Amino acid sequence: MKKILSLVLSLIMLTGCFSLSAFAENNGGEKALKFNGNGKFTILNISDIQDKYPMENLAKDYITATVDKVKPDLIILTGDNIAGYDVKAKKDAELAIREFMDIFEEREIKVAAVFGNHDDEGTELTKEEQIAIYESYDCYVGEKGFCVKDRVGNYNLPIMKSDGSGYGFNLWLTDSGTYNTENDYGGYACVYTEQIEWYKKTAAELKEKNGGKSVPSINFQHIIVPEIFDALKETKLLWFGRVIRRENPLNDKTRYYALPDGAKGQLREYPCPPYYNNGQFDAMLETGDILATVSGHDHENTFEIDYKGIKIINTPTIGFHSYNDINIGSRVFVIDENEPESFETYCLTYSDVYPELDNDPLYKARILYDIDTTGWFTKLVSLIRIAGADGMSFKEFGVNVINIFKNIQLF
User: Fold this and answer.
1) Strand, coil or helix: what is 271?
2) CA proximity to 36, closest of 286, 335, 289
């Protein structure tokens, strides 16, 4: 009898943290996703807000202005949505989440989210409790989904065709974890094998429901896949800004990388994937449904790289509370149900949202630092970072440094 009761309790717990997809609950309801009458569906990907409570006013205004400019059908948050280490008390962490969720709720824009390595780091508010806060909003269409060990919120969101005749697209949302506890390699966590098996099983079920055809999909998670260093081009050290250095503690070798030919965007810091690989990317290739895998985590990177038929994409930070860069922004996806494989994506930067600031010589410094509180030396360093943008010649760099000294009194 005890064994039977134990089995029943286990099934109840599993059921409470698993479903085939959010679509199973939301199909036909107000939360169902569907292409518009023009056959388009727009996603605003916001990553690494990583703020405390109260949120930086600059960040709150920027997020609001970005949402109002894009007017997306869906917002996807790809982790480090709050800085758990700076909102240790449960109430503070809850209020930090509500800071941005209130913006989306007021505009009645659907929202889905995954966790990053900082969401529950140092805070008393667990992932399960954070999910409950998200779910308290009418605009939230995410779910707990498949849970394993410390991973919460693995689910998929199908997008129905505009005429309601079937699946037009699919979105995978994956909890990529926090820090590595699987082995002694150290570093960041890797997607578990159990998550990969769940993905393969669910994708097969979705394919069967779709008349035997794979549904074109994009995967969203916080930490980038380990294959990024296979996708990048190994090179020699050149003029800074074009090449990044990676010191791998597993082999004590320092290597230099640049974007490969044909890549878009910028590589401004070395990517931080796990040091080990459980085969997530290989499973994507094998399953054949995923067109792109999108990550945040590496705040300054904005690249799109084609690798083995799958785009590896990085979305920059939109936050101001942690380290920032002139690439601060978000990423937009526009999907056409008639040509889903040819989706459009681009980054929306601070100057895209506030074009009037292009004529302000200090607007980039405001992005990097709060000019009212930061010392002169840090301001100077920030402007030197700006002057050293990708592709800048030595002559251009020198001119910019001279201008920095000329303008320093403007602070």
Assistant:
1) coil
2) 335
- In the 8-state DSSP scheme, what is residue 139? T
Percentage of residues in the chain having pLDDT higher than 90: 66
Task: Give the number of other Cβ atoms within 10 Å of residue 333's Cβ.
Answer: 24
**pLDDT over threshold 90, residue 392:** no
For 315, the token pair is 């979305």
Which three-class secondary structure state does DSSP give residue 314?
Answer: strand
Q: Which amino acid is at 289?
A: D
The 10s digit of each residue's pLDDT in 96-143 is 999 999 999 999 999 999 999 999 999 999 999 999 999 999 999 999
d(CA 197, CA 201): 6
Report the DSSP beta bridge partners of residue 169.
Answer: 159
Q: At what angle do helices 280-287 and 193-209 cross, to 10 degrees?
A: 10
CATH 3.40.190.10 is held by the domain 17-355:
no
Spatial separation of the C-alpha atoms in residues 128 and 115, rounded to whole Å: 11
Query: Nearest to residue 345, comparing CAs of 288, 307, 285, 294?
Result: 294
The Cα 397–Cα 263 span in angstroms is: 24
Question: So where are the chain's domains?
Answer: 17-355, 360-410
Cβ–Cβ contacts within 10 Å for residue 326, how many? 21
